[in-house]
Specification:
It is found in: Cell membrane. By secondary structure, the protein is mostly helical. It has two domains: 215 residues, no CATH class; 181 residues, no CATH class. It has 18 helices and no strands. The radius of gyration is 23 Å and the shape is globular. The two termini are 42 Å apart.
Length: 443
């Protein structure tokens, strides 16, 4: 099989995994929102918010798989051993930090919340192990393993949800999550030994290479940019957990969980744009690719917001008819904010492929992240949930304006307003021809 065919196959599997994950996330969101009490759902949001605040210290080494794949391929056992050792040390450090902070914030007034946050941190550590091995599958063109194991994980978790339905308690939900995540970690380790024939080898040089990749250059800037995005997405939950009632935080968590479903398809387009840019060899070709995807994300974002306006309250009423209006109102601002950023995801792809990531962090994401923390904290403390949701829109607008300014001035991005190119028109004609529809281009 040629490289082009392999890439096409892996892209197809990746889209299938993304679609499967989206469907499962939607089902889980609906069931959990129906099963748990609103105050218990607040625990989920508060934990997510705290982990987002701590995301800058969650250093990730996976970038080495893409940047130094040739060296990695020759020394797989050494690098994977270094990955696992780093994961263990990082997990111990992270759990220590989470335990101390959550104890100081929550243990005195709500010990159960403290236990949930610590448990959520442990689940996150298992998830980081899953992610490392999944990236290995990605670069080795073995994503089918990811598909298989995700299917097993979802099956286990859905069985757990059935048990939770008859035993409705947030701590039982936490235990189900922990056991499911731990089982998936064991399955991934089993695949690592069997499929990749992994043999543990401790090598100081491999570990040094890994650490250098993490704390310097592309790895560090990429991680901090991702952390800034996490802050913008979820830090509002952390501040709401500090300043408003658990019921309001629970409603906000449901609205945010709902709005997160509007990210999956734009993320697929973002990855497809990156894939196209990796094959581009010139600036004009870059602009052609990015502008094409900008049209798609623009149209998709309008459709998503319109879909939420038309159907959002109807869907939310199945979760909580009594509070549907307030949740819908919160979700409206969160969905608008999310889709404002969705529009420029192709520019984000272009920046990651071509820009200086350190400059991108300093000029775009660091100011936006700091602004998000200030706006969310003030809004949550002084005004409550609705104004915090409105602050999301303001933060995303500022982020997009800063990003566009950087793209035009520093990256020399060239916006094209051509809504349909010749290639797109020919493709559209070919598709319509299959349905015996004839179209003549008059413009």
């Amino acid at each position: 099989m040629s490289l082009k065919e392999q890439l096409a196959k892996q892209t197809g599997i990746g889209l299938l995994i993304m679609g499967f994950s989206t469907f499962f996330a939607a089902i889980s969101f609906f069931l959990i929102s129906r099963i748990l009490e609103r105050e218990e759902i607040a625990y989920i949001g508060i934990a997510a918010g705290l982990l987002a605040m701590l995301s800058p210290i969650l250093l990730s080494p996976e970038v080495i798989l893409f940047r130094d794949y040739a060296a990695f391929k020759k020394n797989t056992n050494k690098y994977v051993s270094a990955f696992l050792f780093f994961w263990l040390v990082r997990s111990i450090f992270i759990m220590g930090v989470i335990s101390v902070i959550s104890y100081l914030l929550y243990a005195k007034d709500n010990f159960q919340l403290f236990l949930y946050v610590v448990g959520a941190g442990l689940i996150m550590c298992f998830s980081m192990l899953h992610a490392s091995i999944q990236e290995l599958c990605f670069v080795e063109f073995k994503q089918v393993e990811t598909l298989r194991l995700n299917f097993i994980y979802y099956a286990i978790f859905l069985v757990g949800l059935i048990y939770i339905y008859f035993n409705r308690d947030i701590m039982i939900y936490l235990v189900v999550l922990m056991l499911s995540s731990f089982a998936l970690a064991l399955l991934w380790l089993e695949r690592l030994f069997r499929v990749f024939r992994f043999v543990p080898v401790f090598d100081v040089r491999a570990l040094e290479t890994l650490l250098k990749t993490i704390i310097s250059g592309v790895g560090m800037w990429s991680h901090l940019i991702s952390s800034s995005i996490q802050l913008i997405y979820r830090a509002d939950l952390f501040f709401l957990g500090l300043f408003v009632t658990a019921f309001v935080t629970g409603n906000y968590t449901i609205a945010l969980m709902f709005s997160s479903l509007f990210v999956f398809v734009p993320q697929v387009l973002q990855k497809m744009c990156i894939a196209g840019l990796t094959r581009s060899v010139s600036k004009p070709e870059d602009m052609k690719i990015v502008n094409a995807f900008l049209k798609y994300t623009f149209v998709l974002s309008i459709i998503q917001v319109a879909g939420y306006v038309l159907l959002g309250k109807f869907i939310i009423s199945f979760i909580d008819a009594q509070n549907a209006d307030s949740i819908f109102q919160l979700g409206l601002f969160l969905v608008i904010g999310t889709n404002i950023f969705n529009v420029i995801r192709p520019i984000h792809s272009y920046a990651f492929a071509r820009a200086n990531l350190k400059q991108l962090l300093v000029h775009v994401f660091l100011p936006a992240g700091i602004l998000a923390v200030i706006f969310y904290s003030v809004a949550a403390y002084a005004y409550g949930g609705l104004v915090t949701a409105q602050a999301n829109v303001l933060v995303y607008v500022v982020l997009v304006l800063i990003y566009l300014r950087y793209a035009f001035s520093k990256m020399k991005f060239q916006l094209s307003l051509q809504w349909i190119t010749r290639e797109e028109w020919l493709l559209l004609q070919k598709i319509l021809k299959r349905f015996h529809i004839r179209m003549d281009r008059s413009v």
